[in-house]
Specification:
There is one protein chain. It is built from ten helices and ten strands. The protein is α+β, with helices and mostly antiparallel strands and 257 residues long. It is elongated, with a radius of gyration of 24 Å.
């Protein structure tokens, strides 16, 4: 049976999460203090440790380095989830943290109603997400970066660290525990920096207006999350006629129409 240590000074939070997790057959130990949490950690290995950031910080300060590294690697995250793995290898969502629902606007039932977690993955990233799930369901820990789509249609980047949990015989993966960091802002900053560097390089190497505009457009579109098409239009001196100076993502037929 999968074992979880639930560490939080908030009594109501402990009771709520314990009830939710126990309903799925998970063995849960709850601790209200650092001392109690450390006692549990000294006596047993846990498949997952759940704690709010402020409580985790307290445990971090008073936990031996080896155990501390394991906790930090697994639990410094924005979203946490649990999948049950069927005998046929299907992944069934059992639980997701409330932080996921707040940001993505989707409950676990909403995700199931849409056909499962695959249907909220940003389509271009689906092969990466599927490979990630297959690796973990096959028995290996794995980290991958891909995008999920919020209820409003906004793609958000996740860095997901998932680990398998085996049955008592150690032969079959029965659950997957995962912790995801929301890296959307980091990805946006990276794209902006790449766009700026690319534009600077183009300006230093060419004097062709058409080429400069094309590179500026491509850099701008790559810096905008989920941008699929873009164009730059130039007006004549009277401001009456427009001409396409650069385009990105359009085929020739669409432009001609």
């Amino acid at each position: 049976m999968s074992k979880i240590l639930l560490f939080s000074p908030d009594k109501d939070e402990r009771a709520r999460l314990r009830h939710v997790l126990s309903e799925h057959g998970l063995k849960v130990r709850s601790a209200a203090s650092v001392r109690t949490a450390r006692q549990f950690l000294e006596k047993s290995d846990f498949d997952l440790i759940l704690a709010p950031p402020e409580a985790l910080a307290d445990l971090h300060d008073e936990t031996p380095a080896e155990e501390r590294n394991r906790i930090i690697a697994e639990m410094i995250s924005d979203y946490v989830y649990i999948f049950r793995v069927t005998e046929t290898g299907q992944l069934i969502g059992e639980w997701i943290s409330e932080s996921f629902t707040r940001v993505f606007g989707l409950t676990l039932q909403d995700v199931k109603a849409r056909g499962g977690w695959q249907h909220i993955v940003y389509p271009p990233d689906l092969p990466i997400a599927l490979q990630h799930a297959q690796i973990v369901a096959g028995g290996q820990e794995h980290v991958a970066e891909f995008r999920f789509i919020t209820r409003e249609g906004e793609p958000r980047w996740l860095r997901d660290h998932a680990r398998p949990v085996f049955d008592d015989g150690g032969k079959r993966v029965t659950r997957i525990f995962g912790a995801s960091q929301d890296i959307t802002e980091r990805k946006r900053d990276e794209r902006v920096m790449e766009a700026q560097a690319r534009i600077g390089q183009v300006l230093a190497t060419t004097t062709s207006l058409d080429e400069v505009l094309q590179h500026i457009l491509e850099a701008a579109c790559n810096a905008i999350p989920a941008a699929e098409k873009g164009s730059i239009l130039l007006a004549d001196e009277q401001g009456e006629n427009l001409s396409i100076a650069a385009r990105w993502g359009y085929d020739d037929e669409a432009v001609a129409a």
